[in-house]
Design goal:
Layout lengths: L21 E8 L3 H12 L4 E5 L5 H5 L2 H18 L14 H13 L2 H4 L1 H6 L2 E5 L1 E6 L2 E6 L2 E12 L3 E3 L27 E5 L3 H12 L3 E5 L11 H13 L3 E3 L6 E8 L2 E8 L2 E5 L1 E4 L3 E3 L13 E2 L2 E2 L13 E3 L10 H14 L3 H10 L10 E3 L4 E6 L2 H8 L3 E7 L4 H5 L6 E7 L10 E9 L2 H13 L4 H5 L10 H8 L10 E4 L6
Parallel strand pairs: 1-2, 1-6, 2-3, 6-18, 8-9, 8-14, 9-10
Antiparallel strand pairs: 4-5, 5-6, 7-15, 11-12, 12-13, 16-17, 19-20, 20-23, 21-22, 21-24, 22-23
Helix pairs in contact: 1-9, 3-4, 3-7, 9-10
């Protein structure tokens, strides 16, 4: 496929290029996950909502984030499973057709047209207009587009402009062609040798996916371990899996210089210089994080404070300096996950509804903190985490912190799927009297199949204020991966070979 960037997913591009001034109850700036959620909340309560989108409704998650990356991971998993079927007498040779891979990614993205297209949003009461927005005076936006500019006035505004790639300060990097999550899914050909900079979730996921789809992959990470927000055991498990898939991983890899070098006839490659060695590849992918998009929006005009870390907001997502401005999604900084963005979008949407909505946003805010929502790395095996790690709990709660560990080797359903390499780790705190009645779960980690689903089950008990004994005694279907949740919780109260094993938390576990 050789279609231009303008024609790809054309259904998502706003076509309203009118110059007529508009007045609305609520204006949402940005049509990604957070903006869509906020607009939906406001429109559902009868507000006149205008959304300003400079590119495509659906945002990063749909076009360059969650949807294409998880589709690519799924396709890579299918290829890996097919190759693993040799034990059953099947034989698989060759590499997957890259054009077919790209076509499937696009098909999945296009399946969201029915809910994320401007026309679909209009049916819910949200008018989508095209252009770049900036405040020019209180309650007034100027929207610029190809045909000119228009003025948009409203009582309430929601800023959901998302984030952009954080490019590390490496000599020579800005002078070479590099890929990001915004461009990697449009590669016309499979990379022969992909160098990935960054060992967080995005770097690990895409490294494994491209390796399974036939690329040679080298992963460079500046830290001592991958996935630094997770438990060390999770980092080690993902490292082991990547190397098993043929990914070359360099830890503590501080790039000194990046330069273009010719490595093939009529093809330029990229060389990354590390202390004592150089890594040469055909493509370079940056997975080095993101930063909020706050510049050039006229926030100074309306007195809305911001820093390079994002719009400064209260827990309810209301701007600390501008009462009619609300933040939603990556633009407010902190953990940048789609589920966090949608929750922040909900708070912002509620806040835009007036006094009662603001009360609702304040009441919901504690449960909606993005830091309190689980996160998942969708490698194989998956790694999912919530709350405090063992080291954090031990340092915060001293001798009252305990850990329960449960290995998937005891899980019957894992045995039936040959998925015994995995574990659950539960972090809890005893009360000052040491009574089981005072136990509180404060963190959890899962590595293995279904980890993304299991982390929700593990964390729902403390997040809803349920005593852990109730979860420990709750029957579950057999054989399921959910048994791991109950067996781990039982380990808080009893000992046994098939239960989770309890021990004191160690402050040096990180």
């Amino acid at each position: 496929m050789t279609d231009s960037s303008e024609s790809r997913h054309a259904w998502a591009r706003p076509t309203d290029l009118d110059l007529t001034p508009l007045t609305a109850d609520v204006v949402v700036i940005g049509g990604g996950s957070a903006g869509l959620t906020a607009a939906g909340v406001a429109a559902s309560q009868g507000r006149r909502v205008v959304m300003v989108e400079r590119d495509r409704t659906g945002g990063e998650c749909l076009f360059t984030g969650c949807v294409p990356s998880k589709t690519l991971m799924s396709l890579a998993g299918r290829v890996h499973a097919a190759r693993g079927a040799q034990a059953l007498g099947l034989s698989v040779t060759g590499q997957p057709d890259w054009a077919a891979v790209r076509a499937e990614v696009r098909r999945v993205i296009d399946s969201f047209e029915r809910v994320d297209a401007p026309a679909a949003l209009a049916a819910t009461g949200v008018q989508v207009i095209a252009g770049e927005a900036a405040f020019v005076s209180p309650h007034v936006l100027e929207v610029m587009h190809a045909r000119g500019q228009r003025t948009v006035t409203a009582a309430e505004f929601i800023l959901a402009t998302g984030s952009q790639v954080r490019v590390p300060d490496v000599p020579g990097l800005r002078g070479v062609p590099f890929l990001t999550h915004e461009t990697v899914f449009e590669l016309p050909e499979r990379p022969e040798h992909l160098i990935v900079m960054g060992g967080g979730a995005v770097g690990c996921e895409l490294s494994q996916a491209f390796a399974r789809l036939g690329s040679r992959v080298t992963l460079l990470h500046t830290g001592a371990r991958l996935l630094p927000r997770d438990e060390p055991e999770a980092s080690a498990a993902v490292l082991k899996a990547l190397r098993a898939d043929g990914v070359t991983v360099h830890l503590n890899a501080h790039a000194r210089q990046v330069q273009t070098r010719r490595v093939q006839v009529q093809a330029d490659g990229v060389q990354v210089e590390l202390p004592g060695q150089a890594v040469l590849g055909t493509h370079l992918l940056l997975a080095t994080g993101k930063r909020p998009r706050v510049q050039g929006l006229g926030l100074e005009v309306i007195g809305a404070p911001f820093t390079e870390d994002g719009l400064t907001v209260r827990p309810s997502m209301q701007s600390v300096g501008c009462a009619y401005l609300w933040g939603a999604g990556d633009v407010v900084g902190g953990p940048m996950f789609t589920h966090g963005a949608t929750e922040r979008g909900t708070l912002a949407g509620l806040g835009s509804l007036g006094p009662l909505g603001r009360v609702a946003a304040r009441l919901r805010a504690p449960a909606g903190r993005a830091e309190r929502i689980p996160h998942v790395t969708f490698t194989d095996p998956e790694a999912a985490q919530w709350g405090l790690t063992e080291a954090q709990a031990a340092q915060t709660h001293r001798g009252r912190a305990v850990v329960v560990e449960y290995d998937f080797s005891h899980l019957d359903r894992a045995a039936t799927e040959n998925a015994g390499e995995g574990f659950v780790k539960l972090v809890a705190v005893r009360d000052r009297l040491g009574s089981p009645l005072g136990l509180q779960v404060v963190g959890a980690q899962v590595v293995g199949r279904r980890a993304g689903e299991l982390i929700q089950l593990l964390s729902v008990t403390p997040r809803l204020g349920i005593h852990p004994l109730r979860t420990a005694l709750l029957p579950v279907p057999y054989p399921t991966f959910a048994e791991a949740v109950r067996q781990t919780y039982l380990g808080l109260f009893t000992q046994g070979e098939h239960f989770g094993r309890s021990r004191p938390a160690r402050p040096d576990a990180g």
